[in-house]
Design goal:
Four copies of one chain form a homotetramer. The first copy, chain A, is α/β, with parallel strands linked by helices. The first copy, chain A, contains eleven helices and 15 strands. Chain A has two domains: 154 residues, Rossmann fold (3-Layer(aba) Sandwich), CATH 3.40.50; 178 residues, Dihydrodipicolinate Reductase, domain 2. In chain A, strand 8 and strand 9 form a beta hairpin. Chains in contact: A-B, A-C, A-D, B-C, B-D, C-D. At the B-D interface, helix 10 of B face helix 10 of D.
Chain lengths: 352, 352, 352, 352
C-alpha cells in the first residue's frame, strides 16, 4: 500500500478545521501532517487552542500537536484550508506561490478567472483550469469548493440543467448555526428566532452555481451558465444542515416526474468511482411531503448525500422542491476532502 | 356609555381561544359571555379544562366559568370561533342558522361563494356578501379571517396590488409552532429541526389572497384577483411569529423604492378609524437587512403590525422582501377580533 | 457460529422500540423475530404504523414486517418490551406466564418483591431472583432495567457506595424530551422553557437505586440499601441525554480525589466481559469544569458510557458532581439489550 | 410634582443597560441623563453602538444620544451601572470618589466590608453601611445588588430564615442565556445542550445570600448569617428566567405548609410602600407541581415577583421546592432600579 499524503490544515481550530481533522482520522489516503491557525492560537498545544465541538472525541495524537503559524513552511503534501475570509486570500496565495496544492473551503479565490469552484460530481473538468494557474501565477494551485448553501443547490441543479436547461431559480434557505463557525451566532440572536440575513451570503448563492454549471475553455476561461438565480437566506435555530426551498423554470418542458427521474438516476462520472468521500448515493429522494427534515436527514451518506423532497408543480416557475445538505460536510469539510481525493486520483496533489 | 356586547367563544380552550379570552379582558366594546368547547371539555370548570399557555395569568372570572357544549344556545350577541377544521363547519353552520353572527378563524367556510375572508384594511367592502348569506342561507352570518400565513401576506400584497398590479408571487414561510395549537407539534419533531410541510397549508396560502384581493359583485359573487401564487411552507422552532420570504412580479414597473413607498404611506380606510384592535401602524418598514426578526418584532402594534424588511431587486421576479406577522394575533385571534369590531361599527353584530 | 436468538419487540413503534430495532440491526447475538404494538398499530405494515425518529434509516426488512397484537404467541426466543405503563403490567405478565423471558424497560414490575432491576455492572447477582419467579409465579420471568434517570445515577453511585458507603444523595435532573416518547412533550411546552415536573418520575429516582444497591437473599428477597435519596426532576429543551447534578454524603470519609479514583478505576465484573453492548469504559471522567455537556458527550461509548464531571467538595453534603447518561441508550434500549446479553451468557434466555 | 432625577447609565449598550433604559422610559422618578460605555462604543450615536435586543423598540430620544466615555463627568444625579467585571471596579470607584451615588449590578464591590448587597425587601437596614463608606472612602457611595441567581434565592430564603432559621441550603440552577449578556453564549454551545458551568457563578451564589441575610453593625461591619450553601449552576437553552431547585434544612422544625405560609404571608417592610418597581406580590406561590415554568412565569410582577413551586418534604434536608426569578429584572436591572428608588425615598440619591 502506498503511503498516505500529509495534509497541512490551515484554520485547524475552527469548526470546519475540526471536521477536517475528524474526517482525516482513519482516512485511507490522507493524514494530518501539520496544524496551523491565526496568531492567537499559534504556538499552543492544539487541545489548548481549540474549543472542540464535535460529539466524537478529539483524536489523542492531534490534541498534543503544536499549532503553527500560517506560514508556507508547513509539513504536508498539500494544504487543506478553511480560513476566515479576511486572512484567506493572502495566506492561500502565499501557499500556492510556495508550491502547495491548496484545497480550500474559503471564498477568497472562488471568483478568480482561473480558479475552479469544484464539485466532483458536477464539474470535474474544471480542474483543467489549474494548468493555467500554474502557467501564469504560481507553482502550486488553488482549488475551491462552493459556499455551503451553493454546494447542495448546485449538486441538485446540475442534472436538471443538463437534462432540461435552466432559466430561472429562486431559493430560500434555512441555514444552521454551525455555518457561522464558533463563537459565531450568539444564542440570544437565534433562540426562538429567525434572522433573515447572513453577511455576504446571498451574492455567493446567486453567482457560484452559474460558474460551476458553466464551461472552462483554455482560451476564454470560465463562461457562466446563463441562469438567473435569486436567493433569500435565513439563519434558523438548528445545529447542522441547510434546508433550501427551490422553485425553478427549465429551458425545456419538464414534469415533476421528469425532474425526479434525472435526480434519481444520476450517476457520478466514472472518474470518481471509489473516492473515499463519495457517498453511495448522490441524492436521496423522498416521497414523504414532510421530508427531508434537518435533524433526521442531514447525516445521510455521512453528510455527503443531498436529500431531495417530493418534486411538485410550482404555479409560478414550473417546478418546486426542497433540498437538504449538511453544511459542514457537503458544504465545507467533506466537499474539500472529496476535492482533494479527486486531485490525488488525477495525480495532481503534489507539492512543487 | 353603551353596554358591552357579549361574545360566545367557540373553541375556548385552544390556543387561539385563549388569546381571544385574554384580548377581551378589558376590551372596550366586547366581553366574554360564554365559553364552549368540544365534548371532552364541556361541563368542566374552564380552569380545569384548559392548559393555559399565555404568559399573562388566566382571568379569575374566566377560570370559574363552566365550559358549555357547542350547541347554538349559548349566551352572547355573537360567536367568536376558532374551532378545529373537523367540527367547525357543522358547528358554525348551526350557529348561523340560529341567528348568530359568527366571526371565525376556522377555515371551513373560507372558500364558500358567499362568505368573505375579511381583513378590514384590505377588503372591508366584501362585507356586502353577508346580505346574500342572510337572503339565501340563514338568519345569522359567517365572516372568516384568513389563514395565519395568508393574513400577513395579503396585508402586504394589497397596497402593492392596488398601486402596481401583481402577476406572480412566490412565498416561502417559516412558521412558529403556536400555529399548530396545543399539543400540536411534538418537541421531538422540531427541536434542532425544520419540517418542510404543514398539512393543508400551502393551498390556503396560494388561494386565499386571490379571493381577498378580488371583487365582490352582487350578481357574480366573488371574482378572484388574477395572481399566480406559489407557497412553500415550513415549520420552524419558534414560539410565535411567521416569517415569510416573498418574491413578486408586478403588472406595472415598480422599483424597490416604489414598493417601499406604497407600504410606508398606506393608510387604512377611514371606516376603520378608532377600531380598538387596529394598530397605530399597519406596516413597520425596516432599513436593517437583518430585520424583521421573529422574536424581536412579532409583538409590534400588539401583534397586529406587519413588519417588512428592506425591499430589494429580485433577479428572477423583480421585487423581493421579507415580512413577519404574529400568527396568533394578526393571523388568528387579533384578526377575528378586528373583524368583529368592524362588524359592530357597521351595526351588523346583532343576533337575529 | 451459533444461530441468533429472536427477539419479540413489544411496543415496537415507540421511541425506545425504534432504538431497540436499530440496535438489533447487525447485533451479533440477537435479531428481530416479531414486532408487536397496541391495537391502534396492530395489523399495519411497520413502516405505516411508526413515525420513525432516528437519524439512521429504518431497516428495510423491518419496514415491511407486519405489526402484531400484544398477545403471547409471538415468534421469538424472548421478549424485549418498552410498553407504556398502562398496558405493560398485564401484557408482560401474560408473556411471562406463557414462558417467555421478558426483558423490559417498563416500570410496571420494578418494585415487585421477586423482580430484579438489573444493571449488569452493578447488581448482576440479583438475577438469582428469577429462579424464585419461576418457582412461584410463571414459567418465564421478568427482568427490568431502571428508570432512565435512575440508571445513570445508580451506575455512578455503585462504586462509591461500595468503597465508602452512602448516607444521603440529592439529585437534580435536567432531562431530554426523548424520555417522554412520541408525541410526548409538546413543543409549545418546552421551547424557551424549563418544566419542573415529570409525572411519576421523582419516586422512581428516589427508590430504584436503593433496590439495586441492596441485596437479594433467597429467604428474605430484596433488602434495600439504607440510602436517603431526594430527587428534583426537570424537563429541558434537549433531544437526548439526561444531566444530573448530584450531592452526596458518604458513610466513611472520602475526598473528591478518592471518589474520582473509584470511578476511574471501576472495572465491570468479569462475567460481563465481551457482552456486545458493554461500553469500553463504564465512566468517562472529565477534568474540564464545563463538561459533561448534553449534546457533546451523550454518545460516548455508543450512549452506554456514563460521563462524570469534576468531583468537588459540597459544603452541605460533602461531595458533588454532575453525571450525564444517554436516556434512551443507558437509560432504556441499551440497558435492556445489555440485560438480555447477560441473560444469554448465563443460559437463561430460553422460552419454556 | 418634583422634577425627575437624572441617571448616568454606565454600560448602556449591554443587555442590562438596555433593560435599564427601557425601564426608565416613563419612570415616574428617574430619567436617563447620560449614556456611557467602553471605548469601543464611546463617541458613537447610541443606535449605532448598540445591538438592541428587547422586543420593545429603542426609545427615539435614546437612539440619538451620544455614548460617552466612562469618566466621572457625566450628566446625572446618580450612576446606574452594569459594567462587566473587568472594568467595573476601577470605574465605579472613580464615580464614587467623584461624589456619585453608584447603584450597580456589577459584582466588583459586593464583598467589600462596607458595601451592601441590597435587596430592599430583605435587608434595607444594610444601607446604614454607606455612611461608613462616606466617612472612610469617598464622597459618593456604592450600593450593589446581588448576582442574578443569588437575588431570587435570597428573596425566597429571607422569610424562611426569619421564621425558622436556616442551617443548610443546596441549590441547582438552570440559568437563561441572557444572563451572559451579548454576544455571550454562542448558539453552538447551547442549542440542544446543557452546560454545567458558568464562570465565577457558584461562589457568588454560595456567599452573597449569607452576607445579605447577616447583620450590619457600626462597629463590626457585616456579620454573615451562618448558613452553609452549596450551588451547582447550569446554563440552559432559555432566553430569560433562572429556575432554581432548592433543598434546605431549617434550624427549627418547619413543615412544607409552614414554609408556604411564611412566603405567602410575606409583606415587604413599610418603608418600601409605593416604590415604583416594587411588585404587587413579592411571591407567587403555585399549587401546580408543574409550575413555575420559565417561559410562562418569568414576567409575573413585571419580572420582579419570585415564583415559587409547591413546597414538599425533602428526604435529605427536610424541605424542597423550586423558585423562578427573572434574571435581568429581579436579578439585574429591576433590582438596581428598586435599590435606586429606595435610596431616593431615603433622601440619599444626591451627588455630592
Amino acid at each position: 500500500m502506498e503511503s498516505k499524503l500529509g495534509a497541512a490544515i490551515l484554520g485547524a481550530t475552527g469548526t470546519v478545521g475540526q471536521r477536517l481533522i475528524a474526517l482525516l482520522e482513519g482516512h485511507p489516503w490522507f493524514e494530518v501532517a501539520s496544524l496551523a491557525a491565526s496568531d492567537r492560537s499559534a504556538g499552543k498545544r492544539f487541545a489548548d487552542a481549540c474549543t472542540w465541538l464535535l460529539p466524537t472525541p478529539m483524536p489523542a495524537r492531534i490534541a498534543d500537536m503544536r499549532v503553527e503559524p500560517l506560514a508556507p513552511e508547513l509539513a504536508g503534501d498539500f494544504a487543506l484550508s478553511s480560513l476566515p475570509g479576511d486572512i484567506a486570500r493572502q495566506t492561500e496565495q502565499a501557499f500556492a506561490a510556495a508550491g502547495y496544492p491548496v484545497v480550500t473551503n474559503s471564498s477568497a479565490f472562488r471568483m478568480d478567472p482561473d480558479v475552479p469552484i469544484l464539485i466532483p460530481e458536477v464539474n470535474h473538468s474544471h480542474l483543467e483550469s489549474i494548468a493555467q494557474q500554474r502557467a501564469k501565477r504560481w507553482s502550486g494551485f488553488i482549488v475551491t469548493n462552493p459556499n455551503c448553501s451553493a454546494a447542495a443547490l448546485t449538486v441538485a441543479l446540475a442534472p436538471i440543467y443538463q437534462a432540461f436547461g435552466l432559466r430561472r431559480v429562486l431559493v430560500s434557505t434555512m441555514q444552521a448555526v454551525s455555518g457561522a463557525g464558533y463563537p459565531g451566532v450568539p444564542s440570544l440572536a437565534i433562540l426562538d428566532n429567525i434572522v433573515p440575513h447572513i453577511d455576504g451570503e446571498s451574492p455567493k448563492v446567486e453567482s457560484e452555481p452559474a460558474k460551476m454549471l458553466g464551461r472552462w475553455g483554455r482560451e476564454d476561461g470560465f463562461s457562466f451558465a446563463p441562469i438567473a438565480i435569486s436567493a433569500m437566506v435565513h439563519r434558523v435555530p438548528t445545529i447542522d444542515g441547510h434546508m433550501e426551498a427551490i422553485s425553478l423554470e427549465t429551458e425545456r418542458a419538464a414534469s415533476p416526474a421528469d425532474v425526479r427521474r434525472v435526480l434519481e438516476e444520476f450517476v457520478p462520472p466514472a472518474e470518481l468511482a471509489g473516492l473515499p468521500s463519495l457517498p453511495a448515493k448522490t441524492f436521496h429522494c423522498f416521497d414523504d411531503p414532510a421530508r427531508p427534515q434537518t435533524r433526521l436527514d442531514r447525516d445521510l451518506g455521512n453528510g455527503m448525500t443531498v436529500s431531495v423532497g417530493p418534486i411538485s408543480i410550482c404555479p409560478v416557475l414550473g417546478i418546486k422542491f426542497r433540498i437538504l445538505g449538511h453544511n459542514t460536510m457537503r458544504g465545507a469539510a467533506g466537499a474539500a476532502l472529496l476535492n482533494a481525493e479527486l486531485l490525488r486520483r488525477q495525480g495532481l496533489l503534489k507539492r512543487q
